[in-house]
Write a structure and sequence with these properties.
Layout: H1 2-18, E1 26-29, H2 38-44, E2 50-53, E3 57-59, E4 63-74, E5 80-82, E6 92-104, E7 107-109, E8 119-123, E9 127-131, E10 134-136, E11 140-144, E12 147-155, E13 158-160, E14 171-175, E15 178-184, E16 187-189, E17 197-199, E18 203-207, E19 210-212, E20 223-225, E21 230-234, E22 237-240, E23 248-252, E24 263-267, E25 270-273, E26 279-284, E27 294-298, E28 301-303, E29 306-307, E30 315-317, E31 320-322, E32 327-329, E33 334-337, E34 362-364, E35 370-372
Parallel strand pairs: 1-2, 2-4, 3-5, 4-6, 5-7, 6-8, 6-9, 7-10, 8-11, 9-12, 10-13, 11-14, 12-15, 13-16, 14-17, 15-18, 16-19, 17-20, 18-21, 19-22, 20-23, 21-24, 22-25, 23-26, 24-27, 25-28, 26-29, 27-30, 28-31
Antiparallel strand pairs: 32-33, 34-35
């Protein structure tokens, strides 16, 4: 028994030491390079390491993260990286090129460049995960280049305050032709002329977010998927502000297809129009997509004047129209149906729609994040079931 135990321990130890993260380190970075700078930490870090950022303002401190497997995270109050007129490679405050990078609890602010596409983070390949971060007053919060192998995963983050430059067309999030985009539990607001979320990815999972331009917002589309592809838009509040530049709230296929298959699955969203003029809540550009493109829309709730299914032929069921008085208090971002609303329980079973389970598994919670939903046996239209 002792020999067997010893052999078992030796085997487990050999597996542990051979693991690439067995001797991972934590490196500490602070404002002004004390105890060290981010650039120095990146130069010293090896795959599997974590770089911890102390709170404070990091002015003009940029970074290039290439072909690395790292976690970079703020400790305590989120550290703020302010461009201050400087960006890496004339592209972004941070440039991520290849590898597998996780960024947690960091704020990026004020990115500008001569091409008017300065970004908080520029993704040029690899896998990037962004958790509890904030992007404010950047020409693009995150800008992802075309790379059909790249992925971007955004969780519980805030994108806001597009620069108010007439003709700038800045997007809070702009994703090129990458393999997959996932956005959950995040908030987008106060755009200007550009879109709140624009993605050309092959696969898009946009779930349980508050994509609501809000007071002072003047964005164009709230969600723009110009090249079709596969898209799951589930459980979001998607709202157009009174000052919106365009009546379309969600646009699909405006620039023609780029991927072999296009299918839009849209369920349990609350779509809001605060404009006096009618909105086009969902516009599908059928003439620019292949005939095989699918559209499945169930249990969505539109609030305010406008059209939903017009011109977007497909599978539509359980979708309802309402006015803002049907919601608890839109002025305080309480977009739940009133407790005694006749719409409660009026949804259809969304578990088998177009071969997909489109039932909501969670709900957005302020300021960011989600809360899970228990298993349901009846459903209400819109983003909130409780």
């Amino acid at each position: 028994m002792k020999l067997a135990a010893a052999l078992s321990f030796a085997f487990a130890f050999s597996i542990w030491v051979s693991s690439p993260d067995a001797f991972a380190d934590n490196l500490l970075v602070g404002p002004g390079g004390q105890p060290t700078s981010l650039r120095a930490a990146l130069a010293a870090a090896k795959d599997g390491d974590t770089i911890d950022l102390l709170p404070g303002e990091y002015r003009g401190e940029t970074a290039l993260i290439a072909d690395r497997r790292l976690t970079i995270r703020g400790i305590g109050k989120a550290p703020v990286f302010i461009a201050n007129g400087k960006i890496d490679e004339a592209k972004a405050i941070w440039v991520v090129r290849g590898g597998e990078v996780t960024v947690e609890n960091v704020e990026f602010r004020g990115a500008r460049n001569d091409s008017a596409n300065g970004a908080g983070i520029r993704l040029e390949g690899g896998r990037l995960k962004v958790v509890r971060c904030r992007f404010s007053d950047n020409e693009n919060g995150i800008l992802a280049n075309d790379d059909e192998q790249a992925t971007l995963d955004i969780d519980s983050s805030i994108f806001s305050e597009a620069p108010r430059v007439v003709g700038g067309l800045y997007h809070l999030l702009y994703v090129g032709r990458i393999a997959a985009l996932s956005v959950t539990g995040s908030r987008f607001h106060r755009g200007f002329e550009g879109h709140l979320l624009k993605s050309r990815a092959q696969s898009n999972r946009i779930t349980y977010n508050l994509i609501h331009d809000g007071e002072g917002g003047e964005a164009s589309y709230e969600i723009d998927l110009p090249n079709g592809g596969l898209a799951w838009i589930i459980g979001n509040v998607i709202g157009q502000a009174a000052g919106s530049q365009n009546p379309v709230v969600v646009a699909y296929g405006a620039e023609g297809r780029a991927w072999p298959r296009s299918a839009l699955y849209m369920a349990h969203n609350t779509l809001i129009n605060d404009r006096l003029l009618p909105a086009w809540f969902l516009r599908v550009f059928r003439d620019r997509l292949p005939e095989t493109a699918e559209v499945h829309a169930v249990n969505n709730l539109t609030v305010g004047a406008g059209l939903f299914s017009w011109g977007a032929s497909g599978d539509f069921d359980g979708n309802y129209a309402a006015w803002s008085r049907s919601l608890v208090d839109p002025a305080t971002l309480a977009f739940e149906l009133d407790a005694d609303s006749w719409l409660r329980g009026r949804g259809v079973d969304p578990r088998k729609v177009g071969g997909q389970d489109l039932s909501p598994q969670a709900e957005f919670v302020l300021p960011v994040g989600t809360r899970p939903l228990p298993p349901l046996t009846q459903w209400s239209p819109g983003a909130f079931q409780r």
